[in-house]
Structure formats: C-alpha cells, structure tokens
Amino acid sequence: MAKPVNTSKTGTAARRNRKAKSAAETPADAALRTPARWFARVALWAALGLVGLAGALVLLFSTFNPPITPYMMSERARLGEIAHDWVPMEEIAPVMARAAVAAEDANFCLHWGLDLKAIRTAMASGGNRGASTISQQVVKNVYLWQGRSWLRKALEAGMTPAVEAVWSKRRILETYLNVAEFDEGVFGVGRAAPHYFGVSAADLSEVQAARLAAILPDPKARSASDPSDFVRRRAAAILDGAATIRRDGRDDCFE
Q1: In this structure, what DSSP letter does residue 118 have?
Q2: How far apart are CA 192 and CA 190, in angstroms?
Q3: Of 232, 197, 213, whose CA–CA distance to 95 is shortest?
Q4: pTM score, whole prediction
Q5: Strands 186-187 and 181-183, how do they pair?
C-alpha cells in the first residue's frame, strides 16, 4: 500500500525554494525586470490601440467620405493648395469606372483584396511589374503613406482584407476614383474631368475616361488632354479591356 504524501512538507519545501530563488535575485535583477514588464505591457496596449483605431477608421470610411488623405496633406503643404471635390459614384460615368478597373485591376470583382496570381507573376518577373490591386491602393492612399517600405506594405496587406470585408466593391472603387491623383495637385475624377476636358465626371466619354485611366500610374508625367503616343496606345488598350470586362460580367460588383 502506497504511503500517503505529506502535503504540508511538500508545501513547505516549495515555499523554501521560492524564498531561496528570491534571495538569489539581486536588486539589479529586480530593477531590470520591472521596467521590462512595464514596457511589454505598454507595447501590448499600444498595439491593441492601433488595431482598434484602424478598425474604427475602416468602419467610419465605409459610410463617410474621407475629407483628406495623408498624401493630399503633404501635397497641399508643398504646393500651397490642391484641387479636390468628392463625387458620388452615381455622378461618375460608368465608362470611367470600367476604364479604371481595366487599367489597374481587371480582376477587381474576383479577388478579396489581394490578387495572389498577380503577386506571383510580379515576383517571377523580378518585381518589375506592379501587383497592387485597387483595394490595396485605396488602403495606401486613405490610411497610409506613399513610398516603398516593408512596414507600409505589411500594414497595407493587413488592412486590405479588413476593408474588403466591411466595404462594398462599389464603395472601394468610388473611393479610389475620388482620391487618385490625376495631375499635380489634382485629386479625384470630379476635378480631373473639368481640368482636362471641361466636362463633369458624369459626362466623360469612353475615350476621355480611358485617357484618364491611362495616366493614373504616373499622372505628373502624363497628360490626358495632350496625350503622348504611349498614352494613346495605353488608352486604346484600356478601351478594349473595359469592353471585355463589360461583356464577361467582371463589372457586376460595381455597376
């Protein structure tokens, strides 16, 4: 028959071991441990606060229009003023929406924010081709900053699925067309249409919409009203792409 364990002796031994460890710890060790715990706690709360703030902003801008973006602020500081008017999707010519999708993200209605096939293709080509979806560009423009950095790309990749989960595709595209830069200091199709063609965003023709979409990757060096041969060729390709998107139903999520 097994002998009963004397729990009182076991407990006494454990307390003695803890006291011995405590006695072995020097005041310097305790001084180092306390700030480390404090910093870890502060870092945890700061991270949780940033996640909460990002979530709140994602919810907020799913309904309310962002009044300005970080890049707009930097350009306004540099130039003195910028041109920007928000135009609701109902007041933007449908050809403009299709042209933007054809130019920047032909599978916009098919992915969940990150186009993994495009990312693999870009990696295979050595990173010379862009793989950012319209959703990623909206996250970058509305919430983050310009320029290449791993931190920004990581934040962009983390926030994009959240935006896709909360916003509709139509809302994402509406925001994209309203915050994209079309010329130096000219933001959004609401200002770009009269700036280049003297018409409202609702009255853009197919060719005009295609030319606006053609300058989006490099608006400071390209012109929609005075297009180079490259812009003309790119606009023609965008027209064909927009027609294809309409035929095969890849505009269903925003039309």
Answers
A1: H
A2: 6
A3: 213
A4: 0.80
A5: antiparallel
